Amino acid sequence: MTDREETGRAASLYDLDRDALADLLAGEPAYRIDQLWTGLYAQGRTLDDLSTLPKTLRARLAPLAEGRLTVAATSASEDRSTVKTLWRLADGALVESVLMHYRDRSTVCVSTQAGCAMACGFCATGQAGFTRHLSVGEIVEQVLYARRDAGAGGRRLSNVVFMGMGEPLANYDRTWGAIRRLHGAVGLSARHLTVSTVGILPGIRRMTAEPEPVNLAVSLHAANDELRDELVPINRRYPLDDLVDTCRAYLRAKGRRLSFEWALIDGVNDRAGDARELAAIARGLGAHVNLIPLNPTPGYPTRGTPPAGVAAFADRLRALGVNATVRRNRGTDIDAACGQLAAGAPPRPQQVAPPTRRRPTPA
Ligand code: SAH
């Protein structure tokens, strides 16, 4: 399928790889291609800022570069450490990205799809359903913008996490096209790029064969099939044993760190037995566990585990020999935290069943 058919739009300047750009500029001297490619990606300039290019050439390229991604709104947390951007795409679809400043680094969380088809009930994006795939250019532009934004504040964008709206491995080719561009032309090390997935195994297998050693994060949330089938419905197609085997093969091939995301849901996946099941899987893979109390979303009735329960769960994991951290909850005041990205879309509550509360297991 062509990009046009799948994303419903013609390619933008940022969708073109270097060869396609060279074709587009056929007849121009070769150094022009270098100037444009380096200017857009390594230097992160906009076409307007590329004053080394002749005006006529810029004018010719302008229609390809304009209006593909426009800022519809921005919001910042009170301390400005988290900034969310709502993007309007050329066809009106909306997606969000989030720039987060930490003491020693700045990270942008980007979207790979408008909406998501994975239907995890506790996630605002999943509640809203799938709209369409993003193109390579639409993913890359989110990063270029964040880098400029960070730079304007005297910060250097060092990390990119594919943890915004959508399932990156359900849009594999374009996500990987973006990774290649970021790693190659933009100059971000693959070691500073993290792909997060619900566990689409064919996608993880493809990643295993790619040359770029990116970090893999798996949204686990449950460590037995019965509960995971309910929380992360794709588990019915790709169950836990196969997921673990596929992660192991990835680690062997890449030597990168694996992390598991675990949103703690009160009375659902925060019991002592859950910690034990999770520890058994995480230890076997040497995986790091990121705990995050479930963030509220409009379409999900159950709340996050209260702070004391989160700390207890983390302690339990550590006592079982697992490297676990509680993720600082970024951006909840601006609906920019994990699972809250919905680009203003209302949830479709009929899709979302309340989770089954489990009986507590003995400690
Ligand atoms: N589809 C991919 C990429 C999105 S990453 C994936 O699921 O991995 C977004 C992360 O936030 C995932 O780990 C997701 O499970 C988590 N998440 C979703 N809803 C959440 C919520 N309400 N509270 C906390 N984390 C949530």
Compute the number of structural domains: 2
Averaged pLDDT, please?
Answer: 91
Roughly how much helix do the residues carry, as a percent range? 25-40%
The CATH superfamily of the largest domain appears as Aldolase class I
Shape: globular
Order of helices and strands: HHHHEEEEEHEHEHEHEHHEHEHE
Number of helices: 12
Described by strand count, sense and barrel closure, the largest sheet is: 10 strands, mixed
CATH domain fold name of the largest domain: TIM Barrel
The radius of gyration is 21 Å
First-to-last CA distance: 53 Å
* Major sheet strand order: 1-2-3-4-7-8-9-10-11-12
- Give the percentage of residues in beta strands: 15-25%
Describe the 3D structure:
It is a single chain. The longest helix is centred in the middle third of the chain and has 17 residues, at 136-152. This protein folds into two domains: 22-66, no CATH class; 69-334, TIM Barrel (Alpha-Beta Barrel). With 363 residues, the chain is of the alpha/beta class. The chain has helices spanning 3-7, 18-24, 30-42, 55-65, 124-128, 136-152, 172-186, 201-209, 225-231, 240-254, 272-285, 307-319, and strands at 69-76, 82-89, 94-101, 106-109, 113-115, 130-133, 157-162, 193-197, 215-219, 258-264, 288-293, 323-326. The strands form two sheets. Strands 1-2-3-4-7-8-9-10-11-12 form a ten-stranded mixed β-sheet, covered by helices on one side. Strands 5-6 form a two-stranded antiparallel ribbon. β8 (193-197), α8 (201-209) and β9 (215-219) form a beta-alpha-beta unit. α11 (272-285) packs across α12. The structure holds S-adenosyl-L-homocysteine (SAH). S-adenosyl-L-homocysteine (SAH) binds next to β8 and β10.
